[in-house]
Predict the structure.
Amino acid sequence: MQSPESMIEKLLGNESDIGVGYFGSFPPLLTFQPAFIETQVVCCGREHRSFHEPDKLTFEELEQDHHWVKRGYITDVSINHIRPKILSATTYQMEATAQLILAGHHVGYLPRDLAMRYEEMGLMKILLPDEASYEVKHHWAYRENLHKHVADFFE
């Protein structure tokens, strides 16, 4: 697991053969192939003030009055329209984001599939799913001069 920027750097430096993730830029020396689309949702933990009354939460309150977990890597601002006022934690992996959300002080984005598992266990709530969610397109990234084992992966 690594940031998209680190993944691109390792691919360009021949330290990795293939990567998959959300990329904000597409360097011409690499090939990018669509992999899947993932929905990101805002979540809070059971100890958070919005957990028991999520229907009373407004978009403005979510954006302005909550402590947020910030992604440590660059994300494309055109796909996510929320501009949190209070960014009080930074993570580079969704597992770390989930831990901060579970602790109850922060809200943050998680992939919907992961958030739904926590929600089914009664540990998290998805907040304003129709208003605050967004989709990211993940891509396979690789150098055009593929090693045979990488080329075989795509067949």
